[in-house]
Amino acid sequence: MLKARQIGFSQVFAIEALYYAIHQPEITILLVSRSQDLAVNLLRYCYQAYNNLRKAPPLVKENESEMGFANGSRIKSIPANRSTGRGFAATRVYLDEFAYAAYDDSIYQSVSPTVAQGGSLTVGSTPDGNTNLFYELWEHGHDFTRIYAPWYHCPAYNPDGAHLAGIDEARAREIGEAGEWYRRERPKYTAQQWAAEYGCDFNDSGAAVFDRAAIDRAEDGAVGEQPPNPEHRYLAMADIGRRSDPTVINVVDLDTRPLQRVYHERIERAPYPIIQQRLADVARRYQARLLVESNGVGDPVIENTDYPAEPFVTTVRSKVQAIQSLVLLLERGDLKAKWTPQERRELRAYRWDDQSLVQDCVMSLAIGASILAEATQPLILFGADDVSD
Question: At residue 164, does pLDDT exceed 90?
Answer without folding.
Answer: no
